Amino acid sequence: MSPHLHGQQPLNFAQIINLLRLSATTQNPSLGRSLHAHIIKTGLHNSSRMPNTTLIGMYDRCALLPEARQVFDEMSHRDAVSWASMLTAYTHSGHADLALTLFASVSAAGGIELDDFMYATLARACGSVAALRQGKQVHANFVTSDWSHDDVAKSALVDMYARCGCVDDARGVFDSMSSWSYVARTAMINGYSRNGRFSDAICLFQRFSDRNVVSWTALISGFVQNGDGCGAFSLFNEMRSYGVAIDPFLLSCVVGGSANMAALELGRQFHSLVVKCGFETSMVVCNSLIDMYAKCSNIIAASKVFDMLPQRDVVSWTTMIVGLAQHGRPEDAFDLFRAMVDAGMKPNQVTFVGLLYACSHAGLVEEGRRIFSSMSEDHGIKPVLQHYTCMLDLLGRAGLLDEAEEVVRSMPMEPDEASWASLLSACLNHGATKMGTKIADHLLNLDPEDPSTYILLSNAYAASGMWDQMSKVRRLMAARDVKKQPGYSWVELGKGSHVFYAGDVSHPMKEEILALLGRWHVEMKKRGYVPDTSFVLHDLEQQEKEQQLYLHSERLAIAYGFIKAAPGTAIRIVKNLRICGDCHTVIKLICSIICREIIVRDATRFHHFKNGKCSCGDFW
């Protein structure tokens, strides 16, 4: 669409404003750019009536952030509205960190008086990136300003504190408000439930009689985000009993809850409800369905939902790419990425995390190097710590330990605990005990916080036979109350699931489970199986080590699944930790013995075992 269609006269100011708003609403960047060109051509850009803020808003809605910033930079005079428009554009596009950098420019520029909208915008930006220190600065400025009684800005501050985990500070601002909007209530309720303060969340929720779907969504989504899927589903059923209308955002939330729990049957029921409610073309719902099916080990169903989407955004493409990568289908992930670019969709940082993950878990070193370079060279995306960690993981898994260490020491940002832990894990996996000991010593000096890091350190010293150092790590764990997460697996059977812990044979069907494992063990030995006790990093006798392997949680879950599942159906297992090498060998043998597909979702990826082989190609 052009401003000069069919020989019309040049557009007036009001027409330009209306068309810019239309371009933003319909997300039509070609119309917006054409209007911008018309403004410059007709000299309106030199006028005091130049619609800069509307232009910035249009480019924001069309996901053209560089163009929005160019308009902002070229403005001869910037008032509070123009500053707020640019800050909002950054926040909307997921670049709240840039919004905060711009705020520093606001302060440095001087003479810009912040208004209620600016305070609210800055608080939202701080909340988006959990920038508590900057958020407190915004709050301090706000309480001494002429807008200190504005409830809209206070609502944004409530949300900021809640997102930063400071729910008591959020409640303090909430209680100071003269009236509570749905937005403020939603932020406070969601903040409580997201931070595990469920009783406080429910108490505040019940305080208001005019509850609507927004309030219910705030409460339910908080339960989901805090990992309490069962509580979320119970609330969802209670909400339905009150006859509250369901919207796409709530459905997206509960679908996400079933994804986190790997509850495939429950996810299918929600999918049926999606169709019944007529939301099967909703992008936000379908994106959640794609993620749910991928996380519940049904990548084929995820692909079907993706293929049926009438429109796709960057989340749709990225979710499908990540799902394919996790299921050991790197070539399909690369093909889909090329289709995404050909469709004119701009990838984001998460897209490249998925692509690098696909390379890492398939040993595609050269492809990973190429993708890492193309991020900045072809797509203008600056690598962040997560991308460097992916490269580190790729090189470490491939055994290129010296190059991996060079990545850690040369990355442009300070390597975090996870980076060093990844390198140490690679050393352990490749038997580089000398290098591993050096990395372990360095990591121990960093005073790590993650419990899994202490387990890794203990295993590293055990692998080197350094029992004194291992004991030192164990004493540190005890002093700091760091507890090892027990290994467990669960198998989903219809509407229920059954959990098994490593070494725990207290299940009511333990006799049948152990008898079946015994028969499989005899058959595996006939096929040449020899237990690999190197995965038991304890100073134990050989027989004790073999017994520990024999009772790993995934083996117990598979045996129970085989007894209870319908004949011929796939056995689906979820394990909270990374599957060990010996169990990986065992499951390949079991699937060939029982002639059934076994799908295991461990802490890092999916393993599809079929006909004695695994989709990971023994590289995970």
From TrEMBL:
Q: Please report a single Pfam family linked to this protein.
A: PPR
Gene3D superfamilies registered for this protein in UniProt? Tetratricopeptide repeat domain
Keyword list, A-Z: Repeat
Molecular function terms from GO: RNA binding; zinc ion binding
Q: Does the keyword Repeat apply?
A: yes
Please report the residue spans annotated as repeat (PPR). 150-184, 212-246, 313-347, 348-383
Q: Does the keyword Repeat apply?
A: yes
GO biological process annotations for this chain's record?
Answer: cytidine to uridine editing
Q: Which residues form the DYW domain?
A: 528-620
Give the coiled coil ranges: none
NCBIfam families from the xrefs? Answer: PPR (TIGR00756)
- Designated name of the protein: DYW domain-containing protein
